[in-house]
Design a protein that fits this description.
CATH superfamily of one domain: Tetratricopeptide repeat domain
CATH architecture of one domain: Alpha Horseshoe
Radius of gyration: 27 Å
CATH class of one domain: Mainly Alpha
Number of helices: 6
Helix content: 55-70%
Structural class: mainly alpha
Number of strands: 0
Order of helices and strands: HHHHHH
Strand content: under 5%
CATH topology of one domain: Serine Threonine Protein Phosphatase 5, Tetratricopeptide repeat
Length: 178
Amino acid sequence: MTMYRKNANRLWAGVTLLGALGMAYFGWQWHQRQALNQQIRAGVVIKQGGSPALQRFSAAYDQGLHGDYKHAVQTYGQALERAPDAIDVPHIHFNIGNNLFLSGLVRTINEDGTFQDEARYAFTQAKIAYEQSLRQDPHDQAAKFNLALLHSVMARGMQGASKDQSHMELSNLPIGLP
């Protein structure tokens, strides 16, 4: 009976030791991820450490912070191609939507108060990116809020510019009698 207890105690000690080592490993991974997130928030481009997708993500985030929205969207697209985890995909789509939304907002408006074609295109693409993000993670409150904000902006200025048809010719035939 004492031999059985000794073996059971050794088994439980081994399981406890493995559990403690596993917790230490996952704690170390969590700490590494937090450090990388802090670097990204601080605007440091990740060049070493982290996955290639994370490196592209941090480069795109930095480009977006500096107002280079077009290149940020392209770099997020590259990060999307390299994203190993399905967890990262909705965040990448969300950031693509944010950069497209900001790109549309910095465009100038026409004289009649409507958006230029480039802004309309950027808003439409941002809407698609937000919807894609919400398909991947339907509970993302930030994506829902930004999509609602985008809808309100689009409702105000998305009507097309009115065309003045008094100066348009329908063909190359002269108008009137000869």
